User: Fold Peptidase C39-like domain-containing protein from Phytohabitans flavus.
Amino acid sequence: MRTDIMRKIALTATGIAATAGGIAGPAVAAHAAPAAQAAQVQTDRKPTSERELNVRYEAQPNFYYCGPAATRNALSVQGKNIDVNTMAKQMGTTEAGTNSINDITPVLNKETGKTDAYKSVEIRDSNADDKQTDKLRTDVVRTVDEGRAVVANIAGTTTDTDGVSHSYEGGHYISVVGYHDNGKTVTIADSANPDQASYHISVDNLADWIATRGYSTS
Assistant:
């Protein structure tokens, strides 16, 4: 399946197959502008009901590095700047993408310096139920409050709080770098498009976006 990106800019992923089923399925992102075209995610410190982390954002350098790029952006909130090529090797990333969130979590732990800093959480169903959504909200708030970002493996189409659609039918990885209204809305750092580097979506939409896949959280 080719990744279907419903954006106003021209991002292409030519001739690359990706599976959409299951947390273990590869996830491929759209081609993005070079990493040098960095865009800063807004990062003011907030009261406890809302908080955003300081992201030193970089776009992914090719269409299949969304996993390493999302991980690199997530680690940047801890003041780390890890080369995406190094992480891609550690994750086993190929032109088919990064296979699973379970390949992301060990790298987050290694670079954070703690073997148990992150764990993988799966949402196996095709749509998240209330319990899974509540857990995701709790996980995001706790992780961000600890000064870390969540990395999520998503697939399909969702709509942000401004009504803009974001579509990754073949799969994608994103970083969750903040929350508002006690976690009912979350901030996304998206490596695929520096023109849409940061946006907000409801945690309900995020949970359904992750459904059939998973996320790395503290």
Summary: Residues 51-217 form a domain with the Cathepsin B; Chain A fold (CATH 3.90.70.10). DSSP finds five helices and seven strands in the chain.
